[in-house]
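Practice set, problem 2.
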Amino acid sequence: MAYDPKTLQKTVNDYCDSVLSGLTVAGKSEVRAIQRHRRDLAELDAFVFRWDIAAHHVAWFDSLRFVRGVAAGEPFVLNPAQQTMTAILFGWRRADDVSRRRFSKAYLSMARGNGKSPYAAGLATQLFTCDLPRQQGAEVVNVATTRKQAKEYVWIPSVEFLQSIKDLAPYIAVRRGDCEIEFRHNATVGKFYPLGSDSNNLDGGSYHAAIVDELHAMREKHRELVEKVETGLKGDNSLQVVITTAGSDHSVLWKPEYDYATKVLRGVIDHPGYFAYIFECDKEDDPFDESCWQKANPLLGSAVSMDKLRDHATAARHNPVKRNQFERYYLNRPVSSREKLIPPEVWAGGNAAVSNLAGRECFGGLDKGWRDDLASLYWIFPLDNPDDDELPFFELVGRSWIPADTPRDLTKPPFPELIESGELVVTPGNVTDHRAVIGYAVEWAKRHQVRTIAADPANARTELTELEDTHGIEVYQFRQSCDRYNEPTNKLLDLLAAGRIRHGGSRLLAWAADNVVGKYNAAGNIMPDKVKSGEKIDPIVAAIMAVSESMFAVRVKKQSVYEDRGIREL
């Protein structure tokens, strides 16, 4: 594992000079991390930088071998950007005791595909077996949302890395059933294991190091896990490493950590023991400008394919959901958890008249809405593919209802026009007339092949029960969550962007489409946001549920309205 400190020094200094001069494309956060390092070299008295120690930690990766994938059999060679990040993290030591590291917490962030998990595994194995100074009997954990995820993405690669080092074999015992690695050395036993919010052994840990993977995906329910790991870090030389991609303002654990890291880099917060290194595109960068992609992707051109990034960018140009995902996962740029979903020009691409649909197969989506407001039932028709395109072709039709005594003023736009068109039906009373909804569905089923209708059981159980029990129409409980909505929402947007859906220029649908704002959960899944959307979106919500039925209804057998068919969970 020998690595010449002078060679490393030249590599790191050359890389830092190239970034600071602008020869190497880098985002502001990476520039600030390097500026901080250079400034500290000149100004800090409480800490010293040791190239020999930095070289020890960089060299560790050269000793690791990949055992599967396209790099099977190859050593884990860090590129100059990774060497720089690793050297700065580990080379800084306390001036009064160089056996103690300067940084006790590190925040590392880069775009998806840049080897975060293998790098995390490399760090974990080193801190477990070969830290400087070596911690005898070290207890090391890697942390993710679930124990399974922690096991698959970091712990198993760590096992493979350790088993690739022949000199360590006599000291390493792997207990796969218990998900535990033991390192027996000098009459001590170290342990390395994965943790998730579903783990049973969260209390009582005394950790030398903890690797927290993908903080952006953690939700409020994971807070206890992260806090217990943090309080379990014991000893003067313990280290916590957070390694993640960007999140959104909905990522409740990630956002404050990211904000803190960027404030440290900007010098707003003076925290000498906190390390931050972030590869990200800047806020003002055009996401479709290829020249800025290097900022978020230190492995661009090697592990990260420019052609694949171009494919993702192409898909993102006309799909707001995919654009959000492209910016977040591939440009490592924080995004809003709410986005306007359907550009008017994209929706207008489906304005052509619909066909004669009598007798054709269709799938329904019912959004009951509030008791005294809009209710919508829309049908999606899968048709023979015009021009045999790769995507299927659909037509979308339907109707909405509103009670006459609604709190809304039906004499003001857009309601008179929508009512006159016949797309919005005014019913007597001050609550939604469920008889009108059921009557429409039953009459529709006489003229078309209705395969199934989906609705939220929280506010449409009466309709669902009667449609199934009395009229024999198959129904499905569509519970309102990002996980359920994500795939059909993306499918609808893809169809619109590709010109593969016709809606006949429906004014009601166009109005609702222009209102729709989407919200993302921590995992990046999306659903329409009724609270934040500017106006009513029930017709589009119903359309998305109908799209979902067209995607998934054929995969399951008929079940009762009272059952929630988990097999179709998205």
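Problem 2, part (b): a different protein.
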Amino acid sequence: MKNKLLSMYGENTFNDEEMKRRFPKEIYLEFIKCKDNYLELSNNAIEIIANTIKIWAIEKDATHYCHLFFPLNGRSSGKQNSFIELRDKNPIYQFEYNELIKSELDASSFPSGGLRNLIAAKGYAKWDISSYCFIKDNVLYIPSLFYSLKNDALDEKISLIRSNKLLSKEGVKLLRKLNYKDVKNIKSMVGCEQEYFLIDEKFYNKRIDLLLMGRTLFGKKVTKNQDAYNHYLGNIEKRIQSFMIDLDNVLHKFSIPSKIRHNEAAPSQFEVVCIYQEVCQSCNDNQLLMKLIKECAKKHHLVCLLNEKPFKGINGSGKHNNWSLLTDTGINLFNNSNENRLVFLALLACLIKGLDEYSSLLTLTITYRSNELRLGDLEAPPNIISLYLGREVDEIIDSVLGDENKIFKYEDLDRNRTSPFSYVNNRFEFRGLGSSKSIAFVNTILNFILADQFKEMNKLLENNEPMAIIKKFILEHKRIIYNGDGYSSTWKNLAVKRGINISTNFIDVINVLKDKQIIKRLVDSGIYTKQEINSKFEVLLNQYKSEVEVEIATSLKMINNYFYPSFIKYLSKLEENRNLIQNPILKNKLTIKIDTLSNKLINIDNIMESINLLTNEKIDKLEEIILSYIENILPKLEILRKEVDEIEGFIDLEYYPFPTYDEILFKH
């Protein structure tokens, strides 16, 4: 007998259990075969599947269907079509198999980086059988791939699926050379740790920066530092516990296997962790998870902040990407066991070599404005890629390389939280990804990195012994391994000495997509076309530019319309008080305070004037505009913030125009 939790699990999802129950056996087996091997379904299967899904959706009171896709802006998109058609003026439910398979859309308003224009605006959403259909708010959602008339990818998921195919193809070849003859496919498996903040909606609605950007642009650090605050894994407040219970119930209905929930390190910060699934399903689930957290929070008069750095001076939010590989025979290829040792070492050698050769490409997946503010401090790794393996794996590598080539070790850390890429038991954890982004791009690149090295190892195995190649890969690329403090200047200096790229400037990072050798390898892999790489370059540039421009405009608006008038009022009040005070000592102290505030307001005026001049400069090239923002304007915004935050520290808070950090973070 099922309990309440198990009986509700997956009730809104057309999942594997539902398929087994409703499909004829031969149709179910065909579906699973096509899903696992990225094959096309037969027309007969599609007709039966479409009709079955329609019946299920009608039983669930669905009135519309929608091809759900994730364009290059990372958001969930789709148009809702009614099931109702008129036949002889009578309404009927209509859902033909071709309506399940594909939907035509106007793609002109989605970012494409030049892949299409207004006179060729068609886009197509095609059913992605790697992910479950589900019903939400009486709408049947059909997970889909979004592409142009010329079959160019207009989303992140198409490239992810291509990378899965390549990883499985090259990985199976490698395993067979290593005497794993019965493996037919390999799946990329991912489990996400999603961090987020919850704040009371009344504070959110009073802050224009939170409304427009999802993060605060001004605000003095909290009085009660997170180091002195017993929030991490502490008792969950009743209101938050109620929210978490509701969220779990909703997630389970959508077959999203949430496993862990807890308070995170920063005040008002929390985390939900989901069980491993195939990467495409995990990608879909995480997009839905972010939406459901926000919706559930709203019911409790809370607001969920998914921005990577909503508050300065405390931990930001990441999305730790736990990644492993699973064969169709049930072997976790990242499991370091004695019987699996040769395969583990082969994969590890490929990963070490791949991370070293493509570190700049992996850095690109985590380099964007909001994440730049998080990385490199307060438990967020730096965006200089390094690999932490831990003592046990280091010793295994040392035994392979021999005494003269030992891995250079620092202190024995059981879990290095300053490392962006760590081995944890039977998986690798990439901690650099920000909380607001899709996991598709980063996992596409991880799959590519490994598949590319599998391909090279496969060639070398034709004339060499496995251990010789493993040793060669590790010896030539072990510089990427680092077990020490990733925040330290020691690591930065050592990285430079080792020849590892340490640039964190967005323009330097994104130029990896102009590297001819990397472009060739990506194109040869079949994961991206050259046009799609150019598109990615343009889209990322425009997204960065747009976010910085909103940041500039919002900062200036907050000062012009809120801070400056409030501070002038306070200054006027101080002047009035000074005239009333007779005591010369108090009068002198007040004069000093007035002079300090006056000087700061003059500084603010000067900085704002220089920012206005810089923003009005005529620069045509997109990269040069962004470079000007990075080198000239963003540093001035930081100085501007410093001045405003210092004023917050000594004025009467009655004159401060927004809720403070103390209010926002400690009042639920």
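Answer key, part (b): The chain is about 50% helix and 15% strand. The longest helix spans residues 530-580.
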